[in-house]
Amino acid sequence: MKPLSKYIDHTILKAIATKADIVQLCQEAITHNFFSVCVNSCYVSLAKAELKDSDVKVCSVIGFPLGAMSTKAKVEETKQALHDGADEIDMVLNIGLLKSHDFDAAFKDIEAVKKVMPNNTLKVILETCYLDNQEINEASKLAIKAKAEFIKTSTGFGTSGATIEAITIMKEAINNGNTKIKASGGIRDTDTALQYINLGVDRIGTSNGIAIVTGNALGDKSY
Question: Domain limits at 180?
Answer without folding.
Answer: 4-214
